[in-house]
Specification:
214 residues, alpha+beta, six-stranded mixed β-sheet, 11 strands, 43% helix
Amino acid sequence: MQRLSEEQLQALMLGSSVLEQDGLGPKVLRLQDSSFLKLFRIRRLFSSETLKPYAKRFADNARRLQSLGFIAPQIIEVYRVEDEVNGTAVHYWPLPGETLRQALEQAQPEQRCLLINQFGQLLARLHEKGVYFRSIHLGNVLVMPDGALGLIDVADMKFGRRPLNLSMRQRNLKHMRRYEQDEEWLFKLHKDALIDGYRQYAPRLAQALLLRPE
């Protein structure tokens, strides 16, 4: 990780626009060259952030996803930040497009089915590759201009050597059910499209995972 002084951080942020912030200040910024800078706060108590900073997890996960054939942000640099609020930062080129949730909001029912089928394929590919994306939902999957699906906000995931077992897959689906609109689209209105997409890469587990009683 490259060290970044407070003065260097301010110079990097000069002329940027804030995309996300909290009570401590900016969290995600679009820099003048259209790259993104994502800041991670200092954790005062011992935590997993101490062992492996989230900025490094984000960068490592993005690169690992790309090596497995998935679309993820292109990393420019990872920084250890020397200021009072932020501990680390990741600098990257963002993916173009809109979130899958945004695309579904604007789509007609037939197009929604196609997008959800495509999402089912993506989810099955992740599971079959041993990727457990803990916080996956329709807001951190991006529909690219060419129609492909990319992954964003990738700090929170694990990679295994084998396909995920049924229990881990069910936990992944449970997280998505926390979002009311996602639940409606994925598991009620267009569940058949989700199953058909998932079945293309994980036929043996599609029925057990997605046709189980509610």
